[in-house]
Write a structure and sequence with these properties.
Blueprint: H1 11-26, H2 46-55, H3 58-61, H4 65-69, E1 73-75, H5 92-110, H6 124-146, E2 149-150, E3 165-166, H7 168-185, H8 202-219, H9 231-241, E4 248-250, H10 261-265, E5 272-274, H11 276-284, H12 290-293, E6 350-353, H13 355-367, H14 375-389, H15 395-403, H16 414-426, H17 430-440, H18 467-471, H19 473-483
Antiparallel strand pairs: 1-5, 2-3, 4-6
Helix pairs in contact: 2-5, 5-6, 6-7, 6-8, 7-8, 8-9, 13-14, 13-16, 14-16, 16-17
Length: about 500
């Protein structure tokens, strides 16, 4: 039998269809949370911005170029950087990266309309304070590298694509002011979240800010009469308010997403070795820190598990670095994460600012009559703190070390004594070591004799990125006219030595 099939709806089906259409039409303006993308939240998570900005601190503390300039590290194969062949570098990434993140935190927490929406990152005042401290940290690093940079007109986005460059004296004055005001505005409310440095401990943030203020004040010591803040008073006030009592270290992880960059560099290559300058100087003093700064050179190692000074061989300056085999030189030690797959430390922390540095700073401040104290004691405290930092302190060895004429404190040449020991203690913080070498003039480093030019010199600044000439030409020209030629040999404002 053939059964005819008709495409006819029953009354019940019609009712259900009409009801469904009605629901869809009524709800077409309101899809609830169907339009919410969990991977792109509509509300800015300021704690994530803070974490991201802090991760950029790794690019400062693990940077290679500064270590080459101050002769902590030598290149074993490709030697262009240590021959000063390209000292032009871009600062654009600092503005579009961590500085923009930090400015966004400040803007969102300062705006009455958005401030209530970002409390997941901590109290508004505390978030602003931490962002200001970190901005000061990054800006000081930048102005120390380039000199005049966009500052007061920076980070304005579409409102100003061509920011003017500020005088370094004004930048330093404002950095110090920012650090002061940031600590003062901490409100005792909810600590910041997303903080990988101090885990939201606002007391530690205050000590960190005070220590950065002391560092900044000392940097401009020779320019005290040319800046709107009094570096002596600021340094003394920072000490009075409290400096760090523990080393501030960048917390790397045993994970590829946040691993120590020195560890990463040595997984497949061996491009860097301990430089001969620092190796020979420390070996000559039997400074036990060199035994953790560097690994034994294979051809000189006794392979008994105990490293001796004779086993450390630094990388000399050579016309052709490839003429020296890897067996003849010492690579950086596992203490900073380097050394190759067999000895590297993936999660080894790197110093941001240390107790040793602060002790040397206070010793200098005593000599400058900025604070009271015994400069010699503070100087020795700085060396001891550094030995403790690297795990080599021993009463007998330390006593022998500081008794040597080269090390023993002498107030008549305090700048030489502090400069030499600060250089050692700042390893591997290349940019800070380079800045202090420029400021104090010690140690007396000789330039790479195979560097470019007939009479090579160690560069004292970075040249501006070439993009500034084309996209911000007028302000670039004004900066060069005020500061001097855009070369690596034009001193920045505070570098008067």
């Amino acid at each position: 039998m053939n059964i005819l099939k008709f495409n006819v709806m029953t009354p019940i089906k019609k009712v259900l269809l009409v009801s469904l259409l009605t629901v869809l039409l009524v709800s077409c303006d309101d899809f609830g949370n169907l339009n919410d993308d969990p991977n792109n939240p509509s509300q800015v998570r300021t704690e994530l911005l803070l974490t991201d900005a802090q991760r950029s601190m790794s690019d400062v503390v693990s940077a290679v170029t500064g270590t080459l300039l101050v002769q902590y590290i030598g290149e074993t194969q490709y030697t262009d950087a240590q021959e000063y062949r390209n000292m032009s570098a871009s600062f654009n990434g600092w503005y579009t990266g961590p500085l923009q993140n930090l400015q966004t935190i400040i803007d969102l927490n300062s705006n009455e309309e958005t401030a209530p929406d970002v409390l997941s990152g901590g109290s508004n005042a505390n978030q602003i304070a931490v962002a200001r401290i970190l901005k000061a940290y990054f800006y000081q690093m930048m102005t120390d590298r380039w000199g005049m940079i966009p500052y007061s007109e920076a980070l304005q986005g579409r409102a100003n694509f061509s920011p003017a460059y500020d005088e370094q004296a004004d930048i330093y004055a404002d950095i110090i002011t920012e650090l002061n005001e940031a600590v003062a505005q901490m409100d005792g409310g909810t600590p910041v979240r997303g903080d990988i440095l101090f885990e939201g401990d606002m007391g530690q943030w205050a000590l960190f800010a005070n220590s950065l203020r002391a560092r900044a004040a000392l940097r401009i010591a020779e320019r005290a009469g040319d800046v709107s803040v009094d570096p002596a008073a600021e340094f003394a006030d920072a000490v009075s308010d409290g400096l760090i009592t523990e080393d501030v270290m960048y917390p790397y992880l045993a994970d590829a997403n946040n691993q120590n960059p020195w560890y990463a560099r040595f997984q497949t290559r061996t491009d860097y070795a301990i430089q001969e300058t620092i190796a020979e100087y420390m070996k000559g003093l039997e400074d036990y820190r060199i035994l953790v700064y560097a690994l034994p050179a294979p051809n000189y190692s006794n392979n008994d598990g105990t490293v001796t000074f004779d086993e450390i061989r630094g990388m000399p300056f050579l016309e052709d670095a490839g003429n020296l085999t890897n067996d003849e030189i010492s690579f950086p030690g596992s203490a900073i994460g380097a050394g190759g797959p067999s000895v590297g430390e993936q999660g080894a922390p790197l110093p941001i600012i240390t107790v040793a540095e602060m002790n040397f700073a206070m010793a200098e401040a005593v000599e400058r009559n900025w604070i009271t104290g015994v400069a010699a004691d503070l100087y020795y405290d700085g060396i001891e703190a550094s030995w403790n930092q690297w795990g080599v302190y021993d009463d007998v060895n330390f006593a022998d070390y500081i008794a040597q004429a080269e090390v023993a404190y002498d107030p008549l040449v305090w700048d030489e004594k502090i400069g030499n020991q600060k250089w050692i203690a700042l390893f591997p913080l290349g940019y800070e070591g380079w800045s202090e070498w420029r400021r104090l003039g010690y140690p007396e480093l000789e330039p790479n004799p195979f560097a470019v030019g007939t009479d090579p010199e160690i560069p004292v600044r970075f040249s501006y990125p070439t993009s500034e000439v084309t996209i911000n030409g007028d302000n670039y020209d004004a900066a060069v006219a005020a500061q001097g030629p855009d070369t690596p040999y034009t001193r920045v404002w505070w570098d008067v030595d």
